[in-house]
Each structure stands twice: as C-alpha cells, then as structure tokens.
Amino acid sequence: MEGISVSGLEPGEEGAWDSFVRNVPEATFFHLSGWRRVIEKAFGHRTFYLVARRNREIRGVLPLTQVRSLIFGNSLISNAFCVHGGIVADLPEARDLLAAAALEIARNLRVDCVEFRSTTVSQPNWLNRDNLYVTFRRAMSAEADANLKAIPRKQRAMVRKGIANGLKSEIDNDVGRLHHIYAESVRRLGSPVFPRRYFQLLKDEFGQACDVVTVSHGKRAIASVMNFYFRDEVLPYYGGGLIRARALAGNDFMYWEVMRRACERGYRIFDFGRSKIGTGSYDFKHNWGFEPMRLSYEYLPINAKEIRDVNPLNPRYRVAIGLWRRLPLSLTKLIGPAIVRSIG
After folding, report:
1. Per residue in 32-73, pLDDT tens?
2. Do the Cβ atoms of 49 and 87 come closer than 8 Å?
3. pTM confidence score
4. CA–CA separation, 178 vs 244, rounded Å?
5. Cα–Cα distances in angstroms (integers) from residue 337 to residues 74, 207, 237, in the given order
6. Is residue 181 within 8 Å of residue 243, measured between CB atoms?
7. Which residue stretches of the chain are H helix?
8. Alpha-carbon distance 171 to 67, whole Å?
9. Which candidate, 52, 80, 51, places its Cα nearest to that of 65?
10. Pairing between strand 127-129 and 133-139?
C-alpha cells in the first residue's frame, strides 16, 4: 500500500483532523479531535488518535481509547463514552492500514478486546452485535409548526400538556442543574453518574457546538439535556428529568424545545440518539414517530474468550443495579464517577 502511512495525531494537527471529519459523510460528532482532550482530562485514560496520510494529506482517521478496569476488563474502544466511532477513511487502503495499526496497539497493550462503535459494518470478519442498540434520526422541517404536527397525535398531546403547564426552557450556561438532574435520573435507572467536571469539559471544549437546555416549572428546574451540534444535525445526548417532571410532561416538552430551537437555528436533522432495544427509552423515541436504525458494534477478542457485555440488561448486574437505585443521591454522586470511568 505504497504512499500511505499511519501515525499518531501530531500537536497542532487537530484542525486538519476535524476538517477531514466534517467532510467525510460517514464521520460523526464523536470523531472530532476534541474528545481526546475531554477523555484524557476527565478520566485519565490513554488515547491513540491515528491518522492515515498520503503525501501529508489526511485520508483516514481512527480515535481509540484504552479503558482499563478490574471489573470490566481492558479494552481498546473507538470511541469510549461515545455512541459512534470506528474508522473514517476515503480510501480502502487507508481503512485497512488503520485497522492493522489498531490491532498492533491492542496486542502491545495486551487488551482483552477491540471495539468499534460503527453505524454500519466495517470489519466483516469481527464479531458483530447489531441486536443491542439502535439510533433514531429524522429530517426536520424549516418550520417549527410543521415539526410539531409531524409528531404523532398522542405524543404531540404530551408536548402541548407541557406548554399548558407553563413550562419554560432556557439555554443554561451552568452545568450544575444538568448534573443534579442527570444524577437523579440515572440513579433511578441503576446507572452511575459522570462527574460534573466531565460536563463542564464538554461544554468548554466544543463551545457553540454544545449547549444545555433546561426546563423549569416556576422557579425550579425539572429537566435538562446537553446537546451536540454537527453539520446540519442536533443530537440531545445527556439528559434527564426529576420524578415530578413526568406529571408535568417535562421530558416531552424538553425534547420539543431542543427540536424547536435547533430548527430555528437552521439545523435539519434531529438525532434522538442511541437506545437499547426493549427499553423505555426505545419506546419513548419510537412514540415520537422516529423509526429505529440498528447500530453495528464490532468486536475482536485479543486476550479474552468472550466479548465484554457492560450492559444494564445483562442479568449479572441485576443485583448491583437494584442496590444502586436505593443509595442516597449524594452517595451516588460521590462514588459514581469512579465506576463510570471504567465502563467507557
């Protein structure tokens, strides 16, 4: 494969990396170079951002993060803490060389497994789990009223209920309310919470490509979500609501407000994000009239007999999840970040 070489991302080359990512259709927000800085600062993990070049021109990229844990094993993931990843290349030769480089790193690190979180099959000889996660995406109209009418009747009624209850939304410059609400939401699901610093790092790193929409009832915030913006799409990513938000249709109103605000800013794709098949999150998004699209998560065991299954639906975590749900919120905020950094 003469003429193409693979090496690490050089300091000062981030702009060229991001320019390549924005111009390759298969690339996602989670391929941007900023994730490297966020992951290293927030969790202390080693990252390997690989670049395939021909005549100094970038022809492919692959973000990789090593996640080591006594509980969940040692994995090389593209990309950790993200719903998408894998190789992005405009030449087959670049794709092949990046895959080979990733395997060389994996063997040197003696990881248990390599994982690519791809939207489609990219490594046909690897193990593939396409029966676990789906994503929901749909085009938006340029008119907010048309987007509201496109929501199925029963779900649209919930949005109108939130409006009738006097809910208000705002762009939140402080991640504090988001972190508190998110912590309470994931505790009810039995999941550990990220540190508040992680949310602040995301906001600082991605600037205008990241915001927080918070919904209030009177003077109290009841729901909040962090959103990412990439090309012409908006992706609500970390979000949740307090228990009282359910009766007020707070979550329904919140996602509508994200859609409305993004539409008015000129975004034309609403990406509702990843959900596990058979969960309440899956049903909620489907009720908005979005059709699921299966994600292709690819695994290659290196020093393990089976691929890791860090998944709340895994029966082996049932007892731990039940106990977590009963812990005080303050305690989950304290010990949750130490656990979640090991999941990736």
Report:
1. 999 999 999 999 999 999 999 999 899 999 999 999 987 788
2. no
3. 0.93
4. 15
5. 18, 23, 18
6. no
7. 14-23, 34-43, 92-109, 144-150, 153-164, 176-189, 196-206, 243-247, 250-264, 280-286, 318-325, 329-340
8. 33
9. 80
10. unpaired
